[in-house]
Amino acid sequence: MFTVVDGDRVERIDARPGPGGRPFAPLDRPLLGWERKPHGWCRDDACLPAARAAAIETPDGVDVAAFAELTGHVAVVDAAERALALAAAAPRLTVAEAPDFELDGVRLADFRGRKVALVFWASWCGCRYDLPAWEERHAALRDHGFTVVSVACDRSAGDARPWIEEANATHPALVDTEGVVAELYNVINVPTVVWIDEEGRIARPQDTQTATDLFRSMNGLDSQESYAALRRWVVDGDAGLDRAQVREHLRVPTAEEQRARAHARLAVWLAREGRDEAARRHVAEAAALAPHDVAIRRGLMPLTGDDPFGDAYFALRDELEKAGIPIYRPLPTRPGTSV
């Protein structure tokens, strides 16, 4: 048996190690929600033609990792732990339509007709102190057809809940324990804010915004400037970027970033299972693939016994600064201005 970790879904499949330790599953059983039929592998109305699947079907069965990649995923295999993790090979992220999601019983589509600020934060980041200020912005602007939806990038809901309760949040305050929404929006650090207009289009892509000036000496960000920009968008309809600029600044994930997310996903599952040494291997693999992804690297620090507020974080900052990799990525506030 192998375990497949795919976002918020963990599935045990009947598979055995084949060449290179890769899992091979029987041809006559469903696999990852797909079923083999005479004309190919099918799930609902989608079918993978038999001719395309033929190369991964062997006397040992079907190569599970290769099958996952044919169905639009990247796959990371840990043969020793009998586990593999998946991430989307090419998440759907365009300016035309913000990816929908459902988390904690809330769907993004529920807010169609209102402007939405998706606010990504985490308990392991100083941006946790901004949550009450985001609640204040939500309260001040909601009568103008605006909603804050905060998304905590925490691996445990228990880590985020005290900060949500302290903020007395009346806005939808969600916890993305499996990193599903962060993956959809290619969030590589927090705080990151995405603006979504009434028609469900991205009006402002991944932007480093703060709601207080607590850490202005470190990040150089002006919370009042970001609030003024938010008001202009909500009240006057001026997002500060034209559509061409939105398209230019939208960060679409690379294959390496997605493979790093699969490694991170596997690391978290292994740690939850008490397999700490194996988890550390995948933490290191994720960092090697996406060294710039602070959300992954800092978010996984507790798995290796490091303090995300301590020396390990400042060592990460020094590493990125020496490599010329920006930690914060604010966008221009007015059309025609530069970052």
From TrEMBL:
Coiled coil: none
Superkingdom in the source lineage: Bacteria
The Thioredoxin domain, residue ranges: 84-267
Gene3D superfamilies: Glutaredoxin
InterPro entries hit by this protein: AhpC/TSA (IPR000866), Thioredoxin-like_sf (IPR036249), Thioredoxin_domain (IPR013766), Thioredoxin_ResA/DsbE_sf (IPR050553)
Pfam families in alphabetical order: AhpC-TSA
Protein name: Thioredoxin domain-containing protein
